[in-house]
Amino acid sequence: MLSSLHCFAHPETDSPQGTPPESDEAVGMLLPPLEGPTPWTNKPLLNDPERFQFAIVTDRTGGHRPGVWMDAVNKLNMLRPEFVVSVGDLIEGYTDDEQQAKAEWDEFVGFVDQLDMKFFFVAGNHDVTNPILHRMWRERFGKEYYSFDYKGVHFVCLCSEEPRERISEEQLAWISKDLQEHSDARWTLVFLHKPLWTYAERDLAEGKPDQTNWKKVEQLLIDRPHTVFAGHVHHYVQYRRNEREYYSLATTGGVSQLRGDSYGEFDHVTWLTMEKDGPQIANLRLDGILAADVVDEQTITRLNAFLKGTAVEVAPILMSESTADRFSDGEIGIRVSNKSTEVVKLSGELEGLPLKGLTVDPGTLDLTVPPGTSKELRVRIAFTEPMEFEQLFRTAMVSTLKTVGEDPLTSERVIPVVIDRRFEFPTIAELPPIDGMVKSWPERSNATPEKPLLLGNTRGWQGVGDGSAKFFARHVPKNDGPAGEQVYVAVRVKDDRVISAVDRVELLIDPRPVEKRSTEPRYTRTGLTISAFAPTESGEVKVDARRFRRDRSYRGVKASGIRTEDGYDLEFAIPTKLVKEIQGRDWHSLQGTVVLHDADEPDEEPTQVVWRGTDRVRELNTGFGHFVREK
How many whole angstroms separate alpha carbon 320 and alpha carbon 326? Predict the structure, then answer.
């Protein structure tokens, strides 16, 4: 049996609320005597002399994944537990070849020797599979079951393999004697490899006697505070038995599908803090424990250069209006620019496309880009049957950019792939008078659908006769007025009851370059919203134009309107200065949508009828129309 561990500490002095700061001096913390409020709370220091912390490691083998156990060793050295306890399966074992077993134990003990703190071995089925491995265990580590004490807590390390899934009668007698000799322990912690309580319960449920002897062990423990830890099954479960917690731990490098928390499949160490009223348990995933130098100045400088120096662009597929609302085939361009000093490789795939009748050529997206260069990949997408554009809104390129060489840097990039119509946006010679009287309505225009997206008071909409709109847009490159270049928009609203104080037309415009709009659909920092209320009986129109960021007014917008027999018309003249600020003088396109606000009573919340977009229409440009200017 291993010798007991000892610790000496000063008694704890808890500071109750309102006691003077000097009361903390007894526990080694000297606080200045301040009058009035203090910049600290009156909670006690968690330094009870009976409190201690240690770590529990679990299965390493059964098809171990190299490097994980040593990763755990390094991270335990960072965490500084007072000691470490295992629950077995430390070597692959399952062999009667002594040389093989000796090599495996030599390797494992070499790992353990790199721990800065004491380690307690517990035997698993891989470790003591047969009489030869049992003998080798005893030659190296002594008995296969033992106990020790630390700060009033009794630790019992058992062997569940006598010979297999069983506590032997000899071990059972030892447990009885050991627990009697330590009846004054404030808590008992039990460690074994297999969760024998589940085996015993299975036998009893089948009408068989308990072959494991675990129920006898439970009876010996039942009158004392205790907690039990096991491994073996490679997934984590907390059990409640006899009003006590039993734990089956996951893996510390053993074979696992690693499907995540909800499956209980992860590599971890269990962190136990012993309190007066029992243990506090936390599971620390190895992939969540980071060294102090995980990012240093040199690393962050290199990473920033990599992120800043690499760009991935996906050119949209914008089809002419002759294709109506369906897409059959087209080609997207993927361009990687590398201004960093390292070779960069892109790998990715297209997601969100309907799979029926789909071909993508090439099927895998790979580009290797040397420093200071750019490369482009053309990808052909085709369907055997035409797809509506709405079915393609969720298409994205999911990609990874990675530096080539030692210590690679990685950047995950998810870039929306725009496959949509190109909406008519022809150039006209001059700006029509903005008086609400649309001189000629084009043969082809855009209209809110018969079954539109509705926001706000969705029950208030009774169909297209109650509230719907059609519109067209034109580009006016030259204008003699102070506003200069303009975008002209005309909207015709069908509304069976016009409430000029509530009803309005809202234009939402994303003026960024098409690459930015496609990469980042959130446009609220630079977007433009223009609202014009329905004209009054006398023809007055209230208009408001604002940039989203900081809610700044956008000057120069004009709007006018007239009432019609079945609703009202509105005309807008919108300066392009914001577009040119962002895209430059030779700007390419706009993305935008129209939202009709309609109510049938002055105090009624209006229904919002959306031409194109999502329920986050004021945040994301997803679904907005692309208006490409003709040159």
Answer: 11
| DSSP symbol at 69 | H
Q: What is the pLDDT of residues 241-258, one digit of tens each?
A: 999 999 999 999 999 999
C-beta of residue 426 within 8 angstroms of C-beta of residue 442: no
Sequential DSSP letters for 555-624:
TT-EEEEEEETTEEEEEEEEE-HHHHHHH-TT--EEEEEEEEEE-SSTTSPPEEEESS--TTTTTB-TTP
Q: Classify 170 as helix, strand or coil.
A: helix
Tokens of 625: 């129309």
**DSSP conformational letter for 2:** P
Kindly indicate the confidence band of residue 62, based on its pLDDT and cuts at 50, 70 and 90.
confident
Residue 377 burial by Cβ neighbours in a 10 Å radius (0-12, 13-18, 19+): middle
Q: Which residues pair with 380 in a beta bridge?
A: 331, 361
Half-sphere exposure of 277 (CA within 13 A, CB side): 0
Characterize the bridge pairing of strands 373-388 and 326-338.
antiparallel
Q: Are 295 and 254 in contact (CB under 8 A)?
A: no
Q: What is the mean pLDDT of the chain?
A: 90
For residues 309 and 273, is the Cβ–Cβ distance under 8 A? no
Spell out a b/e string for 492-516, using b for 16 or more CB atoms within 10 Å of the CB, else e: bbbbeebbbebbbbbbbbbbbbbbb
Find, among 244, 381, 384, the residue nearest to 315 by Cα: 381
In which band, very low, low, confident or very high, does the pLDDT at 299 lie, cut at 50, 70 and 90? confident
Q: Is residue 87 pLDDT above 60, yes or no?
A: yes
Whether pTM > 0.85 for this model: the answer is no
**With contact defined as beta carbons under 8 Å apart, do 402 and 408 qualify?**
yes
Helix, strand or coil, per DSSP, at residue 204: helix
- Degrees to nearest 5, angle at CA 40 with 36 and 41: 95
